[in-house]
């Protein structure tokens, strides 16, 4: 229950939960938020919202907030409150000592998709300019890094092609590995509106999702594939398109690289990709695959939306390329109502990738090995930048355990809870000589920290978030930072203490620097954002007011590139010991590992994670609704309560991971995407059995 009262003033800002990026009016009484009102002028949400954005903001003033910097006492191991000056000086001294002893590459920094663009930009700048290496990464590593890789390789830009409103022009909506009504609720509602108007729906997902229950749905096809077989499925759809002559050859010949097209065509028409051959792999009836392919290819406008069910696999990047192949072959690119659209999980996944927080890319996806790009940054920053990529997050963990990596600065990301292989991550964190954690709460990662720096919530700072449709929205400060500093100021202070000067008076100055160095952002500044409300990048001389639809005339790489997308089965196999496949997802009222939503009234709507299993699998194990069940994988074990559900297929079980006790990351494997190391969260072979209450 939100405390009500009469607001005295209001400030328009952006929700800090999911990648829809809804605008809200924060109605204020003094420094207190009275309520969050969905903003009618919001370009992403048009006055709509979900329960998270509207009600789950109380975490910002929750009693658990860290209000003072702290240093862990080396003798007693207890936290000691210190001043900002002392904490920053202590952290900087430690980092310097470690670099002197172990070398320049022994330290690194991780930022988060929860942070603003400006904060993320500063962290990667801190790492590159003050630390002197490219050991910078972001939590997008564990969600949408395959999107960046796959879309850049095929269409030349690491971003979705459409704005959200475009779905209202789609005749067919193909949803793969996503559950928009729960994970992206405002966009899910918009999609539902279009489906009620008559658009056809195809869902490729191991689970039955709510969109399939849309009232008055003209046609809803469900392709309930086995977890881990996405690439076989998308290849089968493309096989039908090619062998039944459903391609848009006018588009292919005009817009695509024909050499890559012919190689792909030779590959995809092989009978091993036929629906009949693929049925045995995916478990989806061949006829269903044929009908779905025809529905998609014959539609005047067909749009693909996908989520983590595509990316969090050992073939995540291959699947993204497979989706791009399908869209290009059918000419579903470059106008409203079509496209390839990743539904980004967190508020600023797109932005954190755009801002150069990957170890191989500077802001704007400019590779560190590109001399011209690197030199542009070097001349503005006044340092030389390594031309070799640095360490990714999993490489940092490995290097910490082997003793080569010694210190880490983590801003806004609970890696101990959200990254796979919990025991491995904890071993890595224990091995560090200095772990600096900057966060709102004493999270799981902070338990291993040596220095704790209070973070600031979205209500306490200025900046921008970039949503899943490349829309840059303003985040506006509505109350003073609880601990006296905004996140960007902390990074700046740390840099100054390390001897690399940073002097910004306001995040708008950071955005001006980003715009000066990033060709797709040259027209972005706070004044224009205030005037236009929001801007979809690219925004530059070619696109002065931004770009709602990408690739209308050509691709940034000239011609679209087809890719050969061979299906390779994941190493994670079921057997008699581990006969079920576990997959994971989210629900509407909660958010990721729950650090925010568990500290709000939303908690009452979902007070524990459960394991969904099919009635058949429950019956053969003697499991009834609400029974406690042990879930054992090759990696570990956890205990949850059971929910019997026909939403999952026989042989598949499903859970969420909103509570620390879910243990989802204790049991997931260490498999990851071949191109980006994105963990394979979505496929774990498990056994489930009834246990007594833990
Ligand atoms: Fe909008 Fe997502 Fe926030 Fe809900 S969580 S209000 S859909 S941005």
From TrEMBL:
<keyword id="KW-0408">Iron</keyword>
<dbReference type="GO" id="GO:0051537">
    <property type="term" value="F:2 iron, 2 sulfur cluster binding"/>
</dbReference>
<dbReference type="GO" id="GO:0051539">
    <property type="term" value="F:4 iron, 4 sulfur cluster binding"/>
</dbReference>
<dbReference type="GO" id="GO:1990204">
    <property type="term" value="C:oxidoreductase complex"/>
</dbReference>
<dbReference type="GO" id="GO:0022904">
    <property type="term" value="P:respiratory electron transport chain"/>
</dbReference>
<keyword id="KW-0001">2Fe-2S</keyword>
<dbReference type="GO" id="GO:0043546">
    <property type="term" value="F:molybdopterin cofactor binding"/>
</dbReference>
<comment type="similarity">
    <text>In the C-terminal section; belongs to the prokaryotic molybdopterin-containing oxidoreductase family.</text>
</comment>
<dbReference type="GO" id="GO:0008863">
    <property type="term" value="F:formate dehydrogenase (NAD+) activity"/>
</dbReference>
<dbReference type="GO" id="GO:0003954">
    <property type="term" value="F:NADH dehydrogenase activity"/>
</dbReference>
<keyword id="KW-0560">Oxidoreductase</keyword>
<dbReference type="GO" id="GO:0015942">
    <property type="term" value="P:formate metabolic process"/>
</dbReference>
<protein>
    <submittedName>
        <fullName>NAD-dependent formate dehydrogenase alpha subunit</fullName>
    </submittedName>
</protein>
<keyword id="KW-0677">Repeat</keyword>
<dbReference type="GO" id="GO:0016020">
    <property type="term" value="C:membrane"/>
</dbReference>
<keyword id="KW-0004">4Fe-4S</keyword>
<keyword id="KW-0479">Metal-binding</keyword>
<feature type="domain" description="4Fe-4S Mo/W bis-MGD-type">
    <location>
        <begin position="8"/>
        <end position="64"/>
    </location>
</feature>
<comment type="similarity">
    <text>Belongs to the complex I 75 kDa subunit family.</text>
</comment>
<keyword id="KW-0411">Iron-sulfur</keyword>
<dbReference type="GO" id="GO:0046872">
    <property type="term" value="F:metal ion binding"/>
</dbReference>
């Amino acid at each position: 229950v939100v405390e009500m009262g009469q607001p005295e003033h209001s400030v328009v800002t952006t929700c800090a939960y999911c990648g829809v990026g809804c605008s809200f009016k924060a109605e204020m009484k003094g420094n207190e938020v009275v309520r969050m009102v969905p903003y009618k002028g919001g370009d992403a949400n048009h006055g709509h919202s979900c329960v998270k954005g509207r009600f789950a903001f109380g975490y910002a003033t929750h009693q658990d907030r860290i209000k003072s910097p702290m240093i862990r006492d080396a003798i007693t191991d207890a936290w000691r409150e210190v001043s900002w000056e002392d904490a920053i000086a202590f952290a900087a001294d430690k980092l310097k000592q470690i670099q002197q002893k172990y070398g320049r590459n022994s330290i690194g920094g991780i930022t988060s998709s929860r942070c603003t663009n400006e904060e993320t930009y500063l962290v990667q700048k801190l790492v590159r300019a003050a630390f002197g290496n490219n050991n910078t990464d972001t939590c997008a590593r564990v969600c949408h890094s395959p999107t960046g890789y796959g879309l850049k390789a095929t269409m030349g830009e690491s971003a979705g092609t459409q704005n959200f409103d475009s779905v209202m022009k789609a005749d067919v909506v193909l949803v793969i590995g996503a559950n928009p009504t729960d994970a992206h609720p405002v966009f899910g509602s918009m999609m539902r509106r279009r489906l009620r108007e008559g658009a056809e729906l195809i869902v490729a997902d191991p689970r039955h999702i709510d969109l399939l229950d849309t009232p008055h749905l003209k046609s809803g096809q469900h392709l309930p594939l086995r977890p881990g077989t996405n690439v076989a499925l998308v290849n089968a759809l493309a096989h039908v398109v090619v062998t039944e002559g459903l391609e848009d050859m006018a588009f292919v010949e005009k817009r695509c690289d024909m050499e890559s097209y012919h190689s792909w065509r030779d590959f995809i028409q092989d009978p091993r990709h036929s629906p009949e051959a693929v049925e045995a792999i995916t478990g989806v009836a061949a006829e269903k695959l044929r009908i779905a392919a025809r529905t998609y290819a014959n539609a005047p406008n067909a749009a693909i939306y996908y989520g983590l069910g595509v990316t969090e696999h050992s073939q995540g990047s291959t699947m993204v390329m497979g989706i791009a192949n399908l869209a290009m072959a059918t000419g579903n690119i470059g106008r409203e109502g079509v496209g390839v659209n990743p539904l980004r999980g967190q508020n600023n996944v797109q932005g954190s990738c755009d801002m150069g927080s990957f170890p191989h890319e500077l802001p704007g996806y400019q590779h560190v090995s590109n001399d011209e790009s690197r030199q542009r940054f070097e001349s503005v920053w006044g340092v030389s930048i390594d031309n070799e990529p640095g360490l990714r997050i999993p490489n940092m963990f490995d290097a910490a355990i082997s003793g080569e990596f010694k210190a880490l600065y983590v801003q806004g990301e609970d890696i101990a809870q959200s990254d796979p292989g919990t025991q491995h991550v904890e071993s890595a964190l224990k091995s560090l000589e200095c772990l600096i954690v900057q966060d709102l709460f004493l999270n799981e990662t902070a338990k291993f920290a040596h220095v704790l720096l209070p973070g600031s919530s979205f209500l306490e700072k200025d900046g921008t978030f970039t949503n899943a449709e490349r829309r840059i929205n303003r985040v506006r400060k509505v109350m003073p930072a609880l601990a006296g500093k905004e996140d960007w100021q902390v990074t700046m202070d740390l840099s100054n203490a390390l001897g690399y000067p940073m002097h910004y008076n306001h995040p708008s100055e950071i955005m001006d620097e980003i715009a000066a160095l990033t060709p797709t952002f040259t027209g972005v500044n706070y004044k224009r954002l205030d005037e236009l409300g929001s801007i979809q990048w690219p925004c530059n001389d070619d696109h002065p007011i931004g770009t709602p639809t990408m690739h209308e005339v050509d691709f940034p790489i000239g011609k679209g590139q087809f890719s050969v997308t061979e299906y390779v089965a994941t190493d994670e196999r079921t057997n008699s010991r581990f006969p079920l496949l576990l997959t994971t997802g989210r629900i509407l009222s909660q958010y990721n590992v729950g650090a925010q939503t568990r500290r709000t009234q939303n908690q009452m709507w979902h007070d524990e994670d459960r394991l969904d299993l099919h009635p058949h699998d429950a019956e053969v194990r003697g499991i009834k609704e609400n029974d406690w069940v042990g879930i054992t994988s090759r990696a570990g074990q956890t205990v949850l309560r059971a929910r019997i559900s026909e939403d999952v297929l026989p042989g598949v079980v499903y859970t969420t991971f909103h509570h620390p006790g879910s243990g989802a990351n204790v049991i997931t494997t260490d498999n990851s995407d071949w191109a980006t190391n994105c963990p394979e969260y979505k496929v774990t072979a498990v056994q489930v059995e009834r246990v007594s209450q833990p």
